[in-house]
Design brief:
The chain is mainly alpha-helical. The chain is 85% helix and 0% strand.
């Protein structure tokens, strides 16, 4: 009975995790297209997201984990739109492109040299995704370009991957979530404060 419940929980969590992994960048891209601004948006964060997605695709292939391959493969397509969104906002996305090109190249080299270190690197990329944006919201006053919806989706994504990792006993999948929550809390807090300030000033 307990084993069946865990199995169903794992299936539900990986399903939601898959949807949110694909969808997390969409509200951010839509906001930049609509408002034509990337104020407060970290290019480094979204560059890391692309490198991280590629890293998980490779990890999934090595470990025969089909959900990781499919979800992150589709997510890479959605994340690719963020490059066009930055350009639409008038930004030069060279930093974003450079980060993910270097990241993917390092993925391939490290996976060939040491699968163990590669798993660690993949986990670190997943954690690192949140922190450049956390730094950005702490150091910028204008956050008009940042989509709070993207960060709600990212929070749900992180939680679901954590649950899925626990149900299948995979530390590389579960561990990043715990270390990502401090950055998530900072991002959401600062975005809500920014929104409240704008409402008060209106």
């Amino acid at each position: 009975m307990f084993h069946t419940a865990v199995t169903y929980l794992g299936l539900l969590s990986v399903g939601v995790a898959g949807i949110t992994t694909v969808g997390r960048s969409i509200p951010q891209s839509v906001r930049m297209f609509r408002m034509k601004t990337d104020a407060g948006v970290s290019q480094l964060t979204w560059g890391i997201a692309i490198a991280s997605g590629a890293s998980w695709v490779i990890w999934g292939a090595v470990h025969a984990n089909l959900p990781e391959i499919l979800v992150n493969g589709i997510a890479l397509i959605a994340l690719g739109v963020s490059i066009a969104a930055f350009m639409r906002a008038g930004a030069n996305p060279s930093a974003l492109i450079l980060v993910n090109v270097i990241g993917v190249a390092f993925d391939l080299v490290l996976n060939h040299l040491s699968p163990g270190l590669y798993s660690t690197w993949t986990v670190l990329l997943t954690i690192a995704f949140f922190y450049p944006q956390a730094w950005e919201v702490l150091t910028r006053t204008d956050l008009a370009g940042v989509s709070v919806d993207s960060w709600y989706v990212s929070t749900l994504m992180t939680t679901c991957w954590f649950i899925y990792g626990l149900t299948i006993g995979s530390l590389p999948i579960a561990a990043p979530s715990v270390l990502s929550y401090p950055a998530i809390a900072v991002i959401l807090y600062r975005l809500h404060r920014f929104q409240q300030t704008r409402i008060a000033a209106a």
